[in-house]
DNA sequence: GCCAACGTTGGC
DNA sequence: GCCAACGTTGGC
């Protein structure tokens, strides 16, 4: 069982959007970064738990939790010329990008902000708090997961 | 809206 | 395979 963190801009897709979806489930598509896609393809497994992180907003931070309900499969939004994330170099015979499906688990009692996470000695190795980090999917260790939840 | 950091592209 | 140019991310 692995733990993860996935970023989303709340203006585009927030935790409340996820909670109001049918079955509270959503395909996590539009990721166009190889490192992140490889993790969805190879490492994210059914039942893995994921922090939902709001980025590029007033209070960037961890707002909730979700779980992987479908393992990596081709992101067909890359095949659709009308889609914002269309990629002409990806096609159905050789999909370049992957996605997983995630289901809402719960919101945290409060937002654990990036600012706060950066102050914790326990998290100095956590990729999220490293300067200039741009990965939208980040692995979280068991220890990091437990520690972050203890802050709630 | 600014800008630093970083990933990707493409010429050579 | 190097690296400059360019585009994007995301905190502030």
Question: What does this entry look like structurally?
Answer:
The protein is an alpha+beta fold and 152 residues long. The chain has one domain: ph1033 like fold, CATH 3.10.590. It is built from four helices and six strands, in the order E-H-E-H-E-E-E-H-E-H. The chain has a six-stranded mixed β-sheet with strand order 2-5-4-3-1-6. The chain starts with a strand and ends with a helix. The mean pLDDT is 92. The protein binds a DNA duplex (12 and 12 nucleotides) through loops.
Summarize the helices and strands and which ones pair or pack.
Layout: E1 3-8, H1 15-19, E2 25-27, H2 34-42, E3 49-54, E4 61-74, E5 98-113, H3 114-118, E6 137-140, H4 142-150
Parallel strand pairs: 1-3
Antiparallel strand pairs: 1-6, 2-5, 3-4, 4-5
The chain binds a DNA duplex (12 and 12 nucleotides) through loops.
Spell out the key features of this protein.
152 residues, alpha+beta, ph1033 like fold, six-stranded mixed β-sheet, 4 helices, 6 strands, DNA-binding
Q: How far is the N terminus from the C terminus? A: 22 Å
Strand order of the largest sheet: 2-5-4-3-1-6
User: The CATH topology is what?
Assistant: ph1033 like fold
Major β-sheet profile: 6 strands, mixed
Strand content: 25-35%
- List the secondary-structure elements in sequence, H or E: EHEHEEEHEH
Helix count, per DSSP?
A: 4
Task: Name the CATH homologous superfamily.
Answer: ph1033 like domains
Number of domains: 1
By secondary-structure content and strand pairing, the structural class works out as: alpha+beta
* Count of individual beta strands: 6
What helical percentage do the residues reach?
Answer: 10-25%
Shape: globular
- Corresponding CATH architecture: Roll
CATH domain class name:
Alpha Beta
As residue ranges, the low-confidence spans are none
From the alpha-carbon coordinates, what is the Rg to the nearest angstrom? 15 Å
Mean pLDDT: 92
């Amino acid at each position: 069982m692995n733990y993860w963190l996935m970023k989303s801009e709340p203006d585009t897709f927030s935790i409340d959007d996820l909670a109001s979806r049918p079955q509270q489930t959503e395909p996590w598509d539009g990721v166009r970064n190889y490192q992140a896609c490889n993790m969805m393809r190879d490492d994210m497994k059914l039942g893995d738990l994921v922090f939902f992180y709001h980025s590029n907003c007033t209070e960037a931070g961890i707002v909730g939790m979700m779980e992987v309900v479908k393992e990596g499969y081709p992101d067909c939004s890359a095949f659709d010329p009308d889609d914002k994330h269309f990629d002409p170099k990806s096609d159905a015979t050789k999909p370049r990008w992957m996605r997983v499906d995630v289901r809402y688990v719960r919101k945290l009692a409060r937002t654990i902000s990036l600012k706060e996470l950066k102050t914790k000695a326990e998290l100095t190795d956590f990729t999220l708090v490293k300067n200039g980090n741009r990965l939208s999917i980040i692995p979280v260790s068991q220890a990091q997961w437990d520690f972050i939840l203890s802050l709630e």
